[in-house]
Amino acid sequence: xxxxxxxxxxxxxxxxxxxxxxxxxxxxxxxxxxxxxxxxxxxxxxxxxxxxxxxxxxxxxxxxx
Length: 65
Description:
Blueprint: H1 3-6, H2 8-12, E1 16-20, H3 33-42, E2 46-51, E3 54-58
Antiparallel strand pairs: 1-3, 2-3
């Protein structure tokens, strides 16, 4: 079970997430940035900003067009 699966109810009430994204994880078993991004996309978030190893994911209604 991933952390994101365990936090399902919390994520349903969340507008924004700042999370560490590693393209090449340093520890065995840790997911790469692409897997984390895909998981959050499936939960209704969009990657709004990425700076280095940090990503800001927002719900679409909070993104200014």
